[in-house]
Amino acid sequence: MSKLNIFLFFLTGFTLSLLVTPSSALLPKEHGKGGFMILAGKNVTKDKSVLMAHNNNLTGKETSFLKKYPRMEHDSGEVIKFKNGLTIPQELITYEWMVLQTEKGFKEGNAVAVNEYGVAIGGGVSLAKDRKLKVRKADPLKDKGVTGGIRYVALQRARTARQCVRMLGEFFNYYGISYPSGFAVADENEIWYIETGGGTHWAAIKIPSDACWIQANSYRIGFINPDDSEVMTSPGIKEFARKNELWDPEKQLFNFADAFGGRKRKLEDSKFTDSRRIWRAHSLLVPSKEISPERQKFSTFIRPDKKVTLDKLISVLRDEYRGTRFYPYSADTTILTDTTYRVDTICQEDTIVQIDSVIKVDTSYQVDSSGRKERPIASQSSVHTSIMQIRGGFPSGLKSVLWAGLGSPVTTPYIPFYFGIEEIPEPYGAKTSKEKNAFHFYNRLSEIYYSNPSAYSDKFPDVFSDFQQRAINEQKMLDKQAYRIYRSSQKMTTHFLTVSVDGYCHEALDLVKENIK
After folding, report:
1. DSSP letters along 443-490, please?
2. Is residue 246 a contact partner of residue 132, using CB atoms and an 8 Å limit?
3. Alpha-carbon distances of 201 from 207, 232, 290, rounded to whole Å
4. Residues of the chain with pLDDT under 50
5. What is this structure's pTM?
């Protein structure tokens, strides 16, 4: 019996047993992780702020909330422990920070955060499925390497985005990497985007201040020169790529995405799940340039036709391809349930290369009667959505504003959480019971909408329009009042911001509760 036949015999029995007793422990790490982000430099935004927009997609059920951590002093022997067994030394002082996270904790990497100096992590995307098979063999992940939580360790120690990126690079180089991902780091002047290619290799690029970056779940860092001052990489990355036949210097300049990724474009079930979302955001921000929705490779940066605003980014994060042939909620749409399973196997030359195991199909995918699968930018699997706004010329408490929404972007408004608030309003915080947590109500509204999206499309997200526009329009007035108070009393400024944000939080939650009835 050939190796292939032996494998197929084994796989058949293995698959049947899993279908009888499905277990979340058997799911691959990339399941459900369909993150999406847009990064906008300060010279391309209308208010001259740095903006980082992000949808965090998991299963749609992980409770999300916000939390503030104070500036702290630590003992000299203190260490930070990760779930995989990795421990690293703690710093003597860590900075104050605020985070939008899930119940799994920020150490899983599924979070958006900002510190007292206005250094922010803009969320992340999983790159596991797009990583080349050759890379998996040549640069295997480290079981006890750094996890996504290392981003927030660096955040607590950094005063600038560039310092944060350098620190992360040092962590990657010293401890190794346990999971391939992409994420952003920014301050009021710069945005950096980082991708990890394997257990030891990574790259980071600075986003031009007059440009935007669009990202889904595939490798996007293209042609780079490791010696460029606006590029950072792991040591010897070009030699590694050449030696392992990931890059041919005789044919092209070094391209990080081509060297480490591109697998999704070769998989029929995944080939457009990322590129279609990038195409859609591109068409909304640069409508003057018509690009085919079948395109799979895009320019690294884009220059939008108009200055980018909060309103515009919110509309992109909420996009479901309405008005296009890719809208997934027509009458003949079938929404796959979370009890559907399939096997993703890879065979080459009668030899088994990898078993991706059995995966539960994510409800963020929809299939119409023709069998076409689409993943919109907004989906039910979102557990939180956000826009990080970092402004120059403001004191610490006013500099950073996290516009956060819990659950699906279509069924939540974006609330301005100023960094300077004293505490997170109770329904949105970590200490609230699950039944009273705001996420519980937002998630219920999401369930109502996705039970029949086409029936509710006229209502959502329009039901939040008045609240949303007022919150955005009132920001200038709130800033002026807060700054006027700040010149007299920083403590009173904190109180003013806390009361203001609390008002927005409860008003938004009341609006959600009204629509659940």
Report:
1. HHHHHHHHHSHHHHTTTTTGGGHHHHHHHHHTHHHHHHHHHHHHTT-H
2. yes
3. 20, 11, 35
4. 1-32, 333-365, 367-371
5. 0.87
